[in-house]
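Please predict the structure of the following assembly.
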Amino acid sequence: MKEEKLKIFIDSIVKYFHYAGQTSVKIGSPFLIKDIKEVTADYTGTISISGDYQGACYFTAPSALLKHLILSIGEVDTSDSMMQDAVGEVANTMSGNARRRLGKKFIISTPKVSKGAPFVVDKKSDAHIYAIPINWKSYKATLGIHLN
Amino acid sequence: MYRLLIVDDSKLIRQKIERECDQNLFHIVGSAIDGSQALSLFFQQAIDVVTMDLTMPELDGIECIESLVRLDPDVKILVISALNDVATGMEALEKGAMGFVTKPFSGSELQSALCELVEDELQVRL
């Protein structure tokens, strides 16, 4: 995957956390992994990609980050179901925002949310997943991008 | 007061819209998690304004906009979606939506978009 494509997703992450307010997000250097399980946190939102691109986007985060994020949006319910909702919505927003530059044929699914082991989209090739480290406040999350 | 229906598959977003919209101007009459549920609610009660997500299970937002406008050409629909490409925005407007807010969004962005939606009618009423 070219650096310019990774930049599209990094911009989506920065924009999302900008709206969450207060502290800006810090993005670490992206690195390659073979399986999203290598970076999986408590909750993972998975978006399947089809159309001109095939693959998936994963947003995986610890419950502490999700609780803080939910509260910063103004919601007081930080229950398990709300954290599942939040992780799916973040994955949806970050991948959906990539369409500004990837176009309408970057087709995204509704989110599939998992707690613990992530929902893994079948990989049709040996393509690696780019893991983009996200540091927000004292928490760490990852956006995983797997595109053929 | 405008009767508002919120359509989004995320509870977090539905609640955010509910909290942030101007309660003096809008009365929330229902919320739906997808297009099919939105259509059912639309049959059951009078609705003036709809906030509409696009990526949803069952009936998606674009199809739902088309159906709602067919049922009531006067309904005012504001799309609130993460899909921020120009083609999708144009398609939603062609189907009958009257405004578009991109996720993530702030409370003030939502309020001004909703106000713009009903502005012309408000001036007539005043």
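The longest helix of chain A spans residues 3-20. Residues 6 and 38 of chain A are 19 Å apart (CA to CA).
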